[in-house]
Amino acid sequence: MAAGEMQVRTVSAYPVTAGTIYQTFSDTAGAVAERIGIRWLNSSGTEISITWSLTTTGASAGWHRVSVAGAAPVNATQAQVLLSSTEVGAAVAHFWENVYLGLPIRTTGNLLPFGTESFEIDTSGWGVAANSTITRQVPVVSWAVDAYTAGGHTLAMTVTANGNASVLAVDRPTVTPGVEYMAYAYLQPPTSGSTAWIELRFYDASGTQIAAQKSTLAAPGTGMYRQRASLIAPSNAATCSVAAGLDSATAGQVLRLETVVVVLAPEFAAGSILSYGAASFEQGVSGWTTASGVATLARTTPWGDTYFEGSYALAITSTTATQSIIRSGRFPAGAAAGLNFRAQVLAHTGAGSWPTVIVRIRWYDASNADLGASVGTSYAVPSGSWYLLPSDAIAPAGTTQAAIEIVPTAGATNSVLHVDLLSLWQVLPQTAVNPVDDGGYIELTLRELPLDFLISVYRITPDGARSLVRGGAGLIDRQKVTSDLMVIQDHEAPFGVLLYYYVEIYNSSGGFASSRSSGGTMLTLADVNEAWLKDPGNPQRSCKVVVQTAPDWDQPIQQSVQRVRGRRNAVVLSGVRGGLEGELAVWTRSDEERLALRLLLGSGNILLWQAAPGMGVSDMYVSVATVKEGRIGGRAQELWRTWTLPLTEVDMPVTTAVNGSAGRTWQDVVAEFDTFTDVRTVYATNEDLLLDRRTG
């Protein structure tokens, strides 16, 4: 309406818990800089305080992120979001979109807590390592609308004097020796020529640094660039941390950090023995050598110029039209003799031509003696796309280590071959099934799935009936493949029926690509007096009960009987006869079974009832009405209970998805909570902890 600061806030005030950290963010665009805040209110609606973000360092008419987080103060019971900008004239529009208020959004699996990963609260999770000072800034950066872990405050490291400068995370999360970890962060260098880096560091039990892996950014400009560093934890490693900095910097230069993460390093194929560093080239080409020929090896540059995964690839350059042999380092393969392994390389012609590229595996014994190489598989790599080049081989006697060899032959001088996303793993069955009788489900394992394709999974019974199998996103019907390995627990498989699974795979545009089938399998329910009651969306609640009395079924129907005067027989108007209705009587035999059944019934969800084969009852989806729980007489300490469950047959729930942890592990809990007492104040039950359903 006029020049000066304008503020808007949410009409509603949202409930909060004092002492709990909350975050708000929004995407915004306008003619001036802006800020965002959380307004804390007490139970009477009176303002206690406001947690403001810093104002952005500049203005932009393009969408950019502002964000802030803070702990709700004492006596706070409600909060509102505040949006603020100080305009220089009247009738000026400032745009806001995608507003969030809630618990902090952090990277699942990150060993570092939210306050160290993000800088929305403060910089207390970081300290100066050398020649620098630390502040916070909110630069103008455009992020994807769903990049919820990025944007807002950054850590700004300012160089004090000419020379090297660095900062170091204060946290020391525990690590497991022999496991590979990856650190990554967005770095914003002061110039495109700056030597900016991130480093993953390991420490022993006394806190002494014992290993480190530095990864230097080859910046194409001064934007935000994600840089990765990975390393296998040494045998005496106890903790880790992450550092970042500038080499040969000038006083006053600023390096900004955003979204700092330490996680388990990913595998490009389930069970691959190659380290992430050797397979991705994000931190260089260490470990790779030219065993013969004229080819030279280098990491592609700059950041994002040529890659398939991450931001870099391996560039193999041949100055002459000749053959070279490129070899990785050796990696432990276990007792590999007689087992089939697969080497897989993703290749792309960067310049010239490559009429022949052979991919093969070289074998070694425990004393590092060379046992020779496999015959390999030969490919021609055309220009244009990236091509997947697999090669299978059986390990000879004595094999305990293996390496990948790439044998490219250039078709012209100064030819360049780009390589990325390498894997070397023992090839296990593509499709495997395992009945878990004690758990009441069949485990289906699917390997070597093509990423970003679509998949449908069916259960096929002897009568030819085909039923979709349920997964974490509902029935698995043309769902996107996000991992080459998929493990499905089918809790709705019938008992005592020999069945198999049929899988259809479609390309990303929906065209049919391939199919596969599993072997036959069967679930067994050993005690015919037992039955399963399951919640299809929450299989962790499923429980076995002892059947006391099977239902006497009613089959209701809506009818209207009209008796016409002068006519002997009535006129009956009928609807469709409904599903079965009856009372199932069951026993629970312990406090654990009793509490489990209460939990199962408590949600009111549709349940699946499965009895033993031959009992005259088919698997049935049911709705349970008012439940009667009674004692069976005798002593008060008697643990057995009798239950009467009024059942109504219903259709299978088609929209229900299987609740799961979505990658959540104990490390996520440890990274966020100091003690288990803190955990208990936030989660009411263990199931709430598993599913991250918070009460405070």
Provide a quick synopsis of the model.
The protein is mainly β.
Set out the fold topology.
Elements: E1 4-9, E2 14-15, E3 21-29, E4 34-41, E5 47-52, E6 64-71, E7 78-87, E8 95-102, H1 114-117, E9 126-130, E10 132-137, E11 154-159, E12 163-169, E13 180-188, E14 195-203, E15 209-216, E16 225-232, E17 239-249, E18 254-264, H2 276-280, E19 289-292, E20 296-299, E21 314-318, E22 325-327, E23 331-332, E24 340-351, E25 354-364, E26 370-373, E27 377-381, E28 387-394, E29 401-409, E30 415-426, E31 431-436, E32 441-446, E33 454-460, E34 466-468, E35 470-471, E36 474-475, E37 479-480, E38 486-490, E39 500-506, E40 512-517, E41 530-534, E42 543-549, E43 559-562, E44 571-574, E45 581-588, H3 591-602, E46 607-611, E47 620-624, E48 628-631, E49 641-649, H4 666-672, H5 676-682, H6 686-691
Antiparallel strand pairs: 1-7, 2-7, 3-6, 3-8, 4-5, 4-7, 9-12, 10-11, 11-18, 12-17, 13-16, 13-18, 14-15, 14-17, 19-22, 20-21, 21-30, 22-29, 23-29, 24-28, 24-30, 25-26, 25-27, 25-29, 31-32, 32-38, 33-34, 33-37, 33-39, 35-36, 39-40, 41-42, 41-46, 42-45, 43-44, 45-49, 46-47, 47-49, 48-49
Main pleated-sheet profile: 7 strands, antiparallel
Give the helix level as a range of percent: under 10%
Structural class: mainly beta
Oligomer: single chain
Query: In percent terms, what proportion of residues is strand?
Result: 35-45%
User: Distance between the terminal alpha carbons, to the nearest Å?
Assistant: 40 Å
Number of helices: 6
- Average pLDDT confidence is 94
- Nearest-angstrom radius of gyration? 31 Å
Would you report the number of β strands?
49
- Spans with pLDDT under 50 lasting ≥5 residues? none
**Broad shape:** globular
